[in-house]
Amino acid sequence: MAFEKFNEGSQGNFPPREMVKGNWKCADCGKEITELPFEPSPDRPIYCRDCWGKKRTQKFGR
Ligand SMILES: [Zn+2]
Predict the structure, then answer these.
(1) What spacing in Å lies between the alpha carbon of 53 and ligand 1's midpoint?
(2) How far is the CA of 27 from the centre of ligand 1 (A)?
(3) Within a domain: residue 50?
(4) Which residue has the higher pLDDT, 32 or 55?
(5) Can you give the pTM of this predicted structure?
(6) Inter-residue contact 26 to 18 (CB < 8 Å)
(7) pLDDT tens, 10-30?
(8) Structural domain includes residue 37
(9) Would you give the DSSP letter of residue 18?
(10) In-domain check, residue 10
């Protein structure tokens, strides 16, 4: 099984996400952001977790 290798040693837990530390501002509410779960691209607006959630629900909800 291909999935067996994937789960090896992790006991069903997801591997910890790498947090990128820095100093950004949310493009929406202006809140300070000190870490992100992904590498931010300089030509894209960065949103805090709250605004991310909002945007996501906006996108999927009608
Ligand atoms: Zn925000």
Answers:
(1) 9
(2) 7
(3) yes
(4) 32
(5) 0.60
(6) no
(7) 566 777 778 999 999 999 999
(8) yes
(9) P
(10) no
